Amino acid sequence: MSETLLELEHVHKVYRTGAFGGGRKRAVRDVSLTVRAGEVVSLIGESGSGKSTLGKMVLGLSRPTEGRILVEGTDVAGIRGFAARKEYYRRVQGVFQDPFSCFNPIFKADRVFEMVRGSYFPEVSDADWRDRVLSALGTVRLDPGNVLNKYPHQLSGGQLQRMLIARALLLDIRLLVADEIISMLDASTRIDVLNLLADLKERGLGILFVTHDLSLGNYVSDTSVILRKGAIAEMGPTTRVFDNPLHPYSRHLLSCVPQLHRTWAEVDADLAANPPEDVTLPTVADGDTSAPLLEAEEGHFVGIDQK
Amino acid sequence: MTLRVKDLKVYYQTLRGDVHALDGVSFDLADGEIMGLAGESGCGKSTLSKSLIRLDSRMRHVGGTVELDGENVPIADDEAMVPLRYHEISLIPQYAMSALNPTRKIGRMINELLRSRGVRPGDVADELRRRLELVGLDPEVLDRFPIELSGGMKQRVVMVISTLLNPSLLIADEVTSALDVSTQRSVAESLVEFRDREYVRSMVFVTHDISLVYQMADTIMVMYAGRVAEKAPARAVIEDPRHPYTRMLVSALPEVGSTVSGGRLEGIPGTPPGLLNPPQGCRFRDRCPMAFDRCAEQPPLVEIEPGHWAACWKTGE
Predict the structure, then answer these.
(1) How far B176 CA lies from chain A's nearest CA (Å)?
(2) Checking DSSP bridges between strand A4-17 and strand A23-36, what pairing results, if any?
(3) pLDDT tens across A35-59, in order?
(4) Do B185 and A258 touch (CB under 8 A)?
(5) pTM of the model as a whole
(6) C-alpha distances in angstroms, B315 versus A178, B89, B300?
(7) What pLDDT is recorded for position A54?
(8) Which of A88, A272, A284, B169 is most exposed by smallest CB count within 10 Å?
(9) Which residues of chain A have a CB within 8 Å of the CB of B253?
(10) Are A291 and A29 in contact (CB under 8 A)?
(11) In angstroms, rounded to a whole number, what is the distance separating the alpha carbons of residues B30 and B48?
């Protein structure tokens, strides 16, 4: 088994809400999971499930209220000071949903590479740096002639998104947080970015893939985590979670996904004809904020049912 | 025949010249038909849906005709379109969440809208309540402000408003793209129900999600770079696409159950051509693996099987 890159231990996040911060909203509830080197873990959930909050906390953009987030053994909350944070981002990077808003429209798009060089590699020579940029672009399968020296509006969303991934690759990253990176892309280019994630995985990167689209989560990931209202509803090897969903919420979610060769009516009829086996879900007392998981089969966990 | 569009050309005027966003689009829409309109961004699908109801100031009608129930639709004449809008042709806008007036309670907003269209709100009040219940909303939403409703609820309110006067043609522009999967399904199913109950005669459902359109549409029309690539019954587009673009597009879609290890899917290399000075001939030529000499000439949209139209030289053989 390869080394553990990211470990979440009973992470909670509580936001203050309301005009005077009087209300409390538990956006993430007792989430524990791990990402190993060379593994893609999908966080799947609808809006308000806490999936993006988790991504933000891993990137150090927000702190967990309770629990610990360990990246290669160090607690992210313990990283303080500019130099330490900068070192952290040498190893952990994020790519986000909207590639168009990640670039400054008045500068050429490849300025993002220069900025990485300015902050992290000032000692590298011009020729050496150029080689590194070309090799990163090669990894994300972009033709340098098409993307260098261009303004962001001259490039497509897929090209910009791949440039952002190339930018992350210029650093010695170990963990990539990919938050909805393909939702804005067209169907014909989406799959290229997904295949790219699979390539990166083979190079030993750990990837936390945050998505709301079940069919996309299923295409690249080794482990799937289905979140609901901040807590884990179901977690396990992707094939098991999709072939044998145990939590009623996961089943409902899967039955709603539009499929290409089966209509909803066929899916419903199928489900009615073969009612899935029942599992006992773990329960918690009222007021208890923990969210225990129950191991239904090896490595396949179900969580509490929240109303 | 509800809608007949013939050789429609709509260009956008820009400082650098005309953008040929719709360049000779022809199709028919039958009574009771739900047509899914699919394609990548920039293929002209939103331009087509806008052209059928209102051209904005940058859009120019260059040629072609639109007929609804046998009558000509004067799409270039903004004034003459007014009586048709909402009564005959109605629209569910792309961002329905922001289409509602935030300063009005929903009931009051609907009444103002109806009066502005010359309808007495009292005449349709009962029907309005009935339809809200049909889509699973409590009629008390009429006394609420839009901010008090969730995204899916707002989407359903807009759906009810848009179809209240039983239009002949409903244009639904990306209505489910901003919704969660489970809400998406219920909204899509309500739209089909509206058609079944004949609240709307026929529908153009614009989306970039082909698997969603397959769930609810009778036919699918795929557009590419301002032209129709293929139009066919939904099952035929998915199971037996004939145009190379449709084939590549359908095979690039990951499904529940497909994984990288189970065989990689391939995207379509290249990007669609710019429409400022569109290339001659078939516009998919540069990305098409089957392209040959004849593709320098524009392929016509021909009916290769009953109801199955495609614009490619290779399909005619």
Answers:
(1) 12
(2) antiparallel
(3) 999 999 999 988 888 888 999 999 9
(4) yes
(5) 0.84
(6) 41, 34, 11
(7) 92
(8) A272
(9) 187, 191, 215, 260
(10) yes
(11) 17
